[in-house]
Amino acid sequence: MSKSRSGMTLLNVVEPVAAPGSGVRDRFPSAPFIWWATGLAVTMGFGLGMLLFLHLSAGHAAGLWWVAAVQAHGHVQLFGWAGMFALGVGLYFLPRLRGCPPPSPRAVRAAAWLMGSGLVLRALAQPTLAALDPGAQRAVTGGALVLSGLLELGGAVLAVGALVRAERQGPPLAGRTGLLAVIPFMLTFFASLLLALTINAVTLATDAQHTGLVPGTADSLMVQLGLFGMLVPISAAVSARTFPLFLRLRIPPRGELSAVFAVYLIGLLCRLTALLDLPPMLQSVPAFGAVVLGLACLGLVVVLDVPLRRSARARKSEAGRSWPVVPEYRASEWLILPAYTWLGVAGLLLIADGLSWWGLVPRPPTDAERHALGAGLITLLILGMAIRMIPGFAGRKLHSAGLVWATVWLGNGAVLLRVLPLFLPSSRADCSGWLPLPASAGTSGRRCTRHLPAGQAA
User: Fold this and answer.
1) Are the C-beta atoms of 90 and 34 separated by less than 8 Å?
2) 320 with 362: CB under 8 angstroms?
3) What is the torsion angle, in degrees rounded to the nearest 10, for the CA atoms of residue 348, residue 352, residue 355 and residue 356?
4) Residue 189 is part of which domain span?
5) In the 8-state DSSP scheme, what is residue 1?
6) Number of C-beta neighbours around residue 399 at 10 A
7) Does residue 455 lie in a domain region?
8) Least confident of 21-30, 186-195, 230-239, 285-294
9) CA angle at residue 9 from 6 to 14, to 5 degrees?
């Protein structure tokens, strides 16, 4: 790594020097977000998703409790596994990029416990409520479901507030050129997080506590805000500042990032109008938004230079030497590079979805787009980046390079098996082979109604 000012800034942000005698609690106060995210993913996320799939595979009927469990599972994956992990990294990474003191450790830990406990309560209360008959138990469970939304929102507000208070103690923004380039992406992440969890809290209080189900429009809006408002922007922001170190790429020019963000925001806002009751003359706006959003996703792939890595080859040629190879770092690249390949795939699916409105191409399955992002971009990127970042944050060594390579094969294989079968003819009519993974909740209540008891499909 060059000892240029920008290079040393990146190095200090991502791989800080350990303070003598410091432990994980002191070095990495936002670690509880990471532990909560991992625990939620293993249990209420991927674990619950597998159990729901096995339930249908065994030939059992899916009642309203099953649909409610799928919605809860999708919510936990978006805001627990992905959202809390992103917050955990951001609360450590962003203050160093800003050059300000870290947020209050006490506030950060309290925020993690509030969000984590709220998500656990959501995963337990929602399917239970949908399975109960009217009575005292149902009323208590409904109250617990409302409380889950308030806990999640309170934790997110506390975390964002702690970060804002710390940011005010930093130097003038004009001198933080690296931060200025990614500020729009970060602001979109935090605004979408707070908006989505506000909608969640209101919806749980007004609708879900009575039925156990989140209405389709609200659920779809939260999924869109979670994927396109939160996770794609924060992935782009962190990637823009770390890939020059991790993958030996150029630092993306601020002008290119700003241009792509402007196109991305226009596409996102236009696509979200699909949830509104538009007059006939404006009904093509969501389709136009999908095309623009897809082009912006492809633009991010080009600007960040992943997976092609053209600037890495150019820098290697100019240096006239090869870089040392660390086995686990090499393995992490085979998670990061496919992650952005899936972002490109999602971009193409978005374009096809928009063009299908005019009958130019067949409409791709909605699940494919969502899982290309949720399982492909987000999960693979988390796994790949965690290998590089979390040991440095915590001041510990990676346990095993062999396990990293196992993660490479299992992670990439899982995404392929989750997305590609959706394009088979049988997958359109039979949802028994449909394994709910990140962001699946938006379609579950509408596609899998054939398994519900008579009279409950609505």
Assistant:
1) no
2) no
3) -170
4) 28-197
5) -
6) 10
7) no
8) 21-30
9) 125
* Half-sphere exposure for 156 (CA within 13 Å, toward CB): 27
Q: Is 363 helix (H, G, I), strand (E, B) or coil?
A: coil
Written as one string, the DSSP assignment of 82-148 is: IHHHHHHHHHHHHHHHHTSPPPPHHHHHHHHHHHHHHHHHHHHHHHHHHHSPSSHHHHHHHHHHHHH
Amino acid at residue number 291: V
Of 168, 197, 226, which residue constitutes the final position of a domain?
A: 197
Structure tokens at 87: 């917050």
Q: Which residue has the tokens 């897809």?
A: 294
pTM of the entire structure?
0.85
151 and 236 together in one domain: no
- In this structure, the answer to whether residues 402 and 276 fall within a common structural domain is yes
Q: How far apart are CA 174 and CA 177, in angstroms?
A: 7
- Count each helix (H run) and each strand (E run) in the chain, helices first: 21, 0
446 part of a folded domain: no
Q: CA 428 to CA 351: how far, in whole Å?
A: 20
Tell me the two tokens of residue 134. 């009217």
305 and 312 in contact (C-beta within 8 Å)?
Answer: yes
Find the CATH number of the domain harbouring 269.
1.20.210.10
Same domain, 377 and 237: yes
Written as one letter, the residue type at 136 is A
* Rounded distance between C-alpha atoms, residue 195 and residue 212, angstroms: 21
Is residue 106 over pLDDT 90? yes
What is the model's pLDDT at position 118? Answer: 97
CB-based burial, 251-280: b 16+ in 10 Å, e otherwise: bbeeebbeebbebbbebbebbbebeeeeee
pLDDT class for 408, splitting at 50, 70, 90? very high
Phi, psi (degrees; rounded to nearest 5) at 308:
-70, -35
For residue 190, give both structure tokens. 């935090």
pLDDT per residue over 424-446, tens digit each?
876 543 333 333 333 333 333 33
pLDDT beyond 90 at 304: yes
Cα angle 383, 387, 391 (rounded to 5 degrees) comes to: 135
- Domain assignment of residue 136, yes or no: yes
Q: Count the residues in the chain.
A: 458
The answer to whether 14 and 389 have CB atoms below 8 angstroms apart is yes
CB distance 93 to 137 below 8 Å = no
**C-alpha to C-alpha distance for 286 and 421, rounded to whole angstroms:** 26
CA distances from residue 146 to 129, 208, 231 in whole angstroms, order as listed: 11, 8, 25
Residue in 132, 113, 136 with CA at minimum distance from that of residue 124: 132
